[in-house]
Amino acid sequence: MFPKFLPQLSFVLIACMVLIASPSGAADFETRAKYAVVIDFQSNQTLFEKDADLPIPTASMSKLMTVYMLLERLKSGELKLDDTLPVSAKAWKKGGSKMFVEVGKQVRVEDLLRGIIVQSGNDASIVVAEGLAGSEEAFAEQMTRRARELGLTHTTLKNATGWPDPEHVMSVRDLAKLATMIIRDFPDYYPIYAEKSFTYSEITQRNRNPLLYRGVGADGLKTGHTEAAGYGLTASAVRGDTRLVMVVAGLESTRERGDEAERLLKWAFRTFETYRLGSAGDTITDAEVWLGQSTKVPLMLGEDLLVSMARADRPRMKVEAVYDGPIPAPVAKGTQVGRLVVTSNGARLATAPLLAAADVEPLGPMGRIGAALAHVIWGPGS
């Protein structure tokens, strides 16, 4: 049955719209970042946002997409960690942050992966791009196309490194979504993002993610900096059962990036909590059935229902089962007939599908006539 700690359900016989709003309290914070977003990993709800959908220069944070493309090949078995890719003159000559690969050499995919994730190597990123697509330009086209397929609607990529290009852009929400996908889809490889250093060619470089060294539970993901983009960070951290994904961008220094990211992350952990309101298969309520062999059908959750909200708003949470009723027979078990809607302070926080938990066969001809007459004489519910 549905958890008893919930406020009493209100059942509304209307059609519902599927909307998800930011939890209350999300505007009660100011950040020096020009662009920012915080997402709860479990509920996928946005806890805080500031110009989160504007396409902006990303610098090296867009290497998350380069890595995503590589991890997909590894997961599918098309590539293996021990496979090697050749280093071109273009990759070797590339400026900025480097893994220090040597032209003409073959480099293991596992080393390239760490060279991008830990060392932010532009050279390693180009080696991967050329190895997977033949050229960096072709790889950028593949990344943009794949980003669209993943729902990253504000992403256009022109290179594998995040090198300045006026058309190379992502939104901070797209970066947060991509980080969430990396954590969820590649659990065997995600721990690399928490590694604090990597040595290649006898050169040891530290991971640039400042939150890895601040004791806030951070375990990824990627920094970025160019003159056009400013200082940015895509990060994730865990506290107890809660994982948050955060992106800040447009900051003015490495120190401000670290301080502001830590401040925003701590505020979000302190302010919000994610509640499990039910699990797939939980019975919620009964709905009336019209002209069925049973007058009611139980409704069950079609998926787990997780809701993130400010702790202070928890007493004002309201849960409604919303459906068109009475539901005409026949009713097939598993058919979606409505939604469970969670609101607080008038803001819709989450919805989950309500499914029929049983079959209801229609009445025969005589039964239908009798039910119709009873409805006319005695009214609904007779």
In short:
By secondary structure, the protein is of the alpha+beta class. The chain has helices spanning 63-76, 89-93, 109-117, 122-133, 136-149, 172-185, 254-271, 365-378; strands at 10-12, 35-40, 46-50, 84-86, 106-108, 197-200, 203-206, 218-226, 230-239, 242-251, 272-278, 283-290, 296-301, 305-310, 317-323, 327-328, 336-344, 347-356.
| Nearest-integer average pLDDT | 90
The largest pleated sheet is described as: 7 strands, mixed
CATH topology of the largest domain: Beta-lactamase
The CATH architecture of the largest domain is 3-Layer(aba) Sandwich
Given the C-alpha coordinates, what overall shape results?
elongated
Tell me roughly what share of residues is in helical segments.
25-40%
**Largest sheet strand order:** 1-15-17-18-13-12-16
Through-space gap between termini: 27 Å
Beta-strand segment tally: 18
Provide the domain count.
Answer: 2
| The CATH top-level class label of the largest domain | Alpha Beta
SSE succession: EEEHEHEHHHHEEEEEHEEEEEEEEH
Strand proportion, as a percent range, falls in 25-35%
Q: What's the CATH superfamily of the largest domain, by name?
A: DD-peptidase/beta-lactamase superfamily
Low-confidence stretches: 1-21
Account of the protein in words:
The protein has 382 residues and is an alpha+beta fold. It folds into two domains: 10-21 and 276-378, Peptidoglycan synthesis regulatory factor (PBP3), Domain 2, CATH 2.60.410; 35-251, DD-peptidase/beta-lactamase superfamily (Beta-lactamase, 3-Layer(aba) Sandwich). It has eight helices and 18 strands. The strands form five sheets. A seven-stranded mixed sheet has the order 1-15-17-18-13-12-16, with no helix packed on it. It has a five-stranded antiparallel sheet with strand order 3-2-10-9-8, sandwiched between helices. α3 packs across α4 (122-133). The chain is elongated. The model is unreliable at 1-21 (pLDDT under 50).
